[in-house]
Specification:
This protein is mainly beta. The chain folds into three domains: 8-52 and 62-291, no CATH class; 297-406, Immunoglobulins (Immunoglobulin-like), CATH 2.60.40.10; 413-536, Immunoglobulin-like. The protein has helices at 2-20, 256-260; strands at 67-68, 75-77, 91-93, 103-112, 118-126, 133-140, 145-146, 152-153, 167-173, 181-188, 194-197, 203-205, 217-221, 226-227, 243-244, 249-255, 269-275, 284-291, 297-299, 302-309, 314-325, 332-340, 345-348, 353-354, 365-374, 378-388, 397-406, 413-415, 418-428, 431-444, 450-458, 463-465, 475-482, 498-511, 529-537. The structure holds calcium ion (3 copies). The site of one calcium ion has 7 residues, from loops.
Length: 545
């Protein structure tokens, strides 16, 4: 008798371990309440996981919170609107559906499971709880948004297609029951393909039954009335506004890695639909659709002006930034394509610019950098970052940003003048006349190359100029020799001392980059630079100090 008691106690103890030890294995399933509470309500309860009323962490893949779908918004129409057809054949309109098929709110979120898998959680509410619920949940790689002309696509005039790997979950609560049947389908065969059943997935009611905590896909509905999130504005057909009548609220999840292994597609939109039956060929009723970017990268960009290069003829900029994986899965082969909007130039390295590292786990960042040499002083520059969801795959995960680039130049020219070699007397024919010889330097005092430098002399005379082009900091010489027509000044108080005034002016000089030079103050007539001299003629020795 005593042995039997011990055996019973042992069995009870074993049962205790089997029952209450279950949470230890929850890490493997999508119905893991330490990640998300798939419990048939929206409240964030004691379990560690989030629920629909939680504040979601920043940067997780999330639809609108929630997607609102008030009647008569967006219902399926025409015979082509079936799960077995390419979305290019789907059509929608505003109209009515049976009240039990009228979706009011829907939502999806992606969260990592403890083992690194990616779980997607979904929810939908309906207007009337009288009748079976046949629900479909699509995860598309293309943007499959309802357009005003009745088609589905990323933008007006653009029709979306299925891409292999688009995921469909069929969740059916039938016969008045609370236990769903769930099937997962993967689209295969491109635009002419169809949904193919995905095998080897444990499915069922979330957190219930022998596989609780290990389900690859599950769903659950509310068996009893339950408060709706205030922000949803839920109003049932009958009952209390803000309260879900039984079987009006649905939630569930799917472990994407149990279906796709390591090659989870980069879904970009989510659609919750109601269906006329559990059949894969059922007619589709209402739907709510929203953006749901499972893979997401964010690119940043700075444009820094480095300086004037290549003898003052070009400007150098540095483009740099980061690419951050803010999505649910690792992205690969990240790179940046940079496009200076209204500037031409030479970029090093050329596009695509590598991101280091190019493989980014969720939350990780890489850096990128390039130099750009151009003549543009001001331009706006766009950076497109792109990455693949699988190594070597199509780079469909993208983000763009722009940054202003502003260079700075300082163009300047200065000129000097000296009485060198100065005045002298020359014998021209039968006359002895005064000859004035002046000279000086023209200097590029800025950081841009100057071309087309032209000088003018007053009184008018031929100017000899060493070079009409000057690099930054460079100088050249000029000289003029002329015979003045008259004495400029000198009152004779010092006998024999007279002055010949003249001016040299820079009348043209063109900077290689940046705005034209401005006239210098004090030059008359107007000039970019000027210098004057008053050269004396003296009796021998009298001009010496
Ligand atoms: Ca819940
Ligand atoms: Ca919780
Ligand atoms: Ca709708």
């Amino acid at each position: 008798m005593k042995k039997l008691n011990i055996l019973i106690l042992t069995m009870i103890a074993l049962g205790f371990v089997l029952t209450f030890g279950a949470p230890r294995s929850w890490a493997q399933g999508v119905d893991n309440p330490t990640v998300f509470e798939l419990d048939g309500n929206t409240q964030d309860n004691a379990a560690a996981g989030l629920d629909w009323e939680s504040v979601f962490p920043p940067n997780i893949p999330l639809t609108a919170n929630p997607i609102q779908d008030p009647a008569p918004l967006t219902v399926f129409t025409t015979g082509g609107s079936k799960d077995t057809n390419n979305v290019s054949q789907w059509r929608h309109k505003s109209g009515s559906v049976p009240d039990k098929d009228n979706i009011l709110q829907a939502m999806a979120a992606a969260l990592p499971l403890p083992n690194g898998d990616t779980a997607v959680y979904f929810t939908a509410s309906r207007f009337d709880n009288s009748g079976d619920a046949q629900i479909g949940l699509w995860f598309f790689q293309q943007s499959v948004a309802p357009q005003a002309n009745g088609t589905f696509g990323p933008a007006p005039g653009q029709v979306a297609n299925h891409v292999d790997g688009d995921l469909l979950l069929l969740v059916n609560f039938e016969g008045g029951g609370l236990v769903p049947t769930i099937q997962a389908y993967k689209w295969q065969g491109g635009v002419n393909g169809g949904p193919v059943l995905a095998g080897n997935i444990l499915t069922g009611e979330c957190g219930v039954g022998p596989n609780a905590g290990n389900l690859g896909a599950c769903a659950i509905t509310n068996a009893a009335a339950s408060n709706a999130p205030v922000s949803w504005g839920f109003v049932p057909k009958s009952g209390t506004p803000g309260v879900f009548p039984p079987q009006s609220f649905f939630e569930g999840g799917v472990n994407l890695n149990t279906i796709f292994g390591g090659n989870v597609p980069c879904f970009s939109s989510f659609l919750a639909e109601t269906r006329s039956s559990s059949s894969i060929t059922a007619q589709l009723k209402d739907f709510a659709e929203g953006e749901f970017a499972l893979c997401r990268i964010d690119v940043t960009k700075n444009c820094n002006f480095v300086g004037v290069v290549n003898n003052g003829t070009q400007l150098q900029y540095t483009f740099s930034g980061t690419v951050t994986n803010n999505g649910a899965g690792t992205v690969y082969d990240a790179e940046v394509v940079d496009t200076p909007g209204n500037a031409t130039g030479t970029q090093t390295p050329p596009n695509p610019i590598p991101v280091v590292p190019s493989t980014l786990a969720p939350g990780a960042s890489g850096t990128w950098q390039a130099t750009f040499v151009t003549t543009a002083l001001s331009f706006t520059d766009e950076a497109l970052a792109r990455a693949a969801s699988a190594p070597g795959g199509a780079k469909t995960v993208t983000d763009t940003t722009t940054a202003p680039c502003q260079g700075q130049v300082n163009s300047s020219i200065i000129i000097t003048k000296e009485c060198d070699p100065g005045t002298s007397l020359v014998d021209i024919g039968n006359n002895v006349v005064v000859q004035v010889g002046v000279s000086g330097q023209v200097t590029n005092n800025g950081n841009t190359q100057l071309t087309g430098i032209t000088l003018a002399h007053d009184p008018a005379a031929t100017v000899t100029l060493g070079s009409s082009t000057l690099n930054p900091g460079a100088s050249t010489t000029w000289s003029v020799t002329y015979q003045p027509a008259a004495i400029s000044s000198g009152d004779g108080t010092v006998p024999g001392r007279y002055f010949f005034d003249d001016t040299i002016r820079v009348t043209a000089a063109t900077p290689a980059v940046g705005p034209p030079l401005s006239p210098a103050a004090g030059c008359s007539p107007a000039a970019l630079a000027c210098a004057g001299a008053s050269c004396a003629i003296c009796p021998s020795g009298s001009c010496l100090p």
